[in-house]
Amino acid sequence: MIELTTPLSAEAIGKLAVGDIVSISGFIYCGRDAVLPRICREIEEGVWKKRGIDLEGGVIFHTAVSPAGVGPTSSNKLEIEGSFKTLSEAGVRMHLGKGAIKPETVGMLRDNNSVFAIIPPVTALLENQTLERECVAWPELGMEALYRIKVKNYQAIIAAAQGRSIYE
Fold it and tell me: What is this structure's pTM?
């Protein structure tokens, strides 16, 4: 088990390999197909910094936040996987979700010293390891808004790193 604390350093990410099991503690951001394209659009338009949300060393969990807890959604949805490049270039070091991603996305992650990790759909377990939650943008989207949550010992499996994928 490799213990990681956010924000994640480039050095820590550079040491991860496909199949490693990690435990993530600290603050992570949650979003999925409704919010990730909005973040990317604001980054590309140069207005994201006005929000005061620093993505450097960050983790994006592909999930909605509901009273029942959090659980991964499919990361290979067009709106989600399409956000990996912009978010990685903006400093996100880990994308959490589930499902296989495209080989070109795996290569892009390598080029941006980012990784993709999968979390089995264990909503109840993750809720017990979620210490705080705060809506930081687009509250009108309800559970699909951008949330920042504080976690302790989230466990995930590195699924794409160093140009390799667990799905190869």
Answer: 0.77
